[in-house]
Amino acid sequence: MPLIMPMGMHDRILKCGSSHCSVAPIKPGFAVHVGLGKAGARFHSLTHALEEMVEKEWGMVGKKGNQFVLDGRPFFVNGFNTYWLMIFATHEPNKGKVTDVLHQASSVGLNVCRTWAFNDACWMALQITPGVYDENVFQALDFVVSEAKRFGIRLILPFVNNWEEYGGKAQYVKWGREAGLNLTCDDDFFSDPTIKGYYKAHVKMILTRVNTITNVMYKDDPTIFAWELMNEPQCPSDPSGDKLQAWIEEMASYVKSIDPVHLLDIGVEGFYGPSTPEKMVLNPNHCSGQSGTDFIRNHQALGIDFASVHIYPDSWLKHKDNNVHLHFSKAWMCCHIDDADKMLGMPVVFGEFGVSRRNARFSFNYLDTFIYLIHKTLLKSTKKGGSGAGSLIWQLFPEGTENMDDGYAVVLSKSPTVSHILSLHSARLRNMVSKKPWKWPWSCRNRNMLDKFTSHDEL
What PANTHER family does the annotation carry (predicted)? Predict the structure, then answer.
């Protein structure tokens, strides 16, 4: 979603550091059903065993049909967004906050984090000008990747933002104008050859980066679950979708030419477009259908491995009541899962979902209900061997970073019900994957086993 960097963030970030805590790495998908305060000691006592488990199971996640796989078994995305990890890791006192949020996420069994691999010409920029990088900031990203592995968490790394925060396509176009290009709007990002060259150079820089901590090239690192072309790409200057589609096809091919192994997604919000006019009525509003995106057509591009969808009923349906929001969210998910099953033949990940508590209508109880609905809908697909492959909540924060709260922040140590819901969902997924033998396609035995973990009464 679009991000708003609060005024004075520079000063605030420098003041909210904490000491770097020492905790053991966590096995992927390992959930601990204890309070977060006690979890650290328990993790510390299991350091050696867990390190061995992480090393043994740390293979590359792939795709088989409409599901993710790891070592021949299904892999389900149960994750979160925390976009600012690289920025915090640039300042030594704040590195502890990176560790804190990864620690807390792993303690409830979350296994994938989506965080930015970009910051263009802003404060603490990674890319200062086209092709010129701040090595200190790059080393901060190295730290994020290495810490993620230590906690058994994989990463989805987007290459650029659609929005102006952290630079985005507007900054690329600004660079082009400064170089003398005749560019008329920010959407020229998708079509101008020079600007596309800037983007490709950044992609190559990220993919071929050798981590200064692990000595592993990013394109070879299983810690990275997937690359993402852009955070929420839109091209409203061309509602036909042709311009954005051509860009997706070109850039997907380029990424795969350098890294054919890692998974790749687009990062779109899931709006339907002209290729499926009968589905455009399912969009949350008229404007979303004019954004230049096209869910079905976009994901038919060669090189795209899974579909991405976002869910923000509170901002998309501002004047509707809570029940309408919940009904829309379920229908939105079911339609996209059905499309991924029948039309795309690929997994679908709901890469962002959340509710802003800045609106008094949305209580903590409503947030709990909303999260439960997302997980219940996904489990229904999982039960049938469907394309519903996972979700990532927007967004997790550790204590001491509330000044950056955009209204959607969830602090697990202060949200026991959310922690319980996430942990329970992790346990359900972990139990499904652990059962032997695993058969493709799903057997009746596996479906019956899953019934034990989908009772509404457990929440």
Answer: MANNAN ENDO-1,4-BETA-MANNOSIDASE 6, PTHR31451
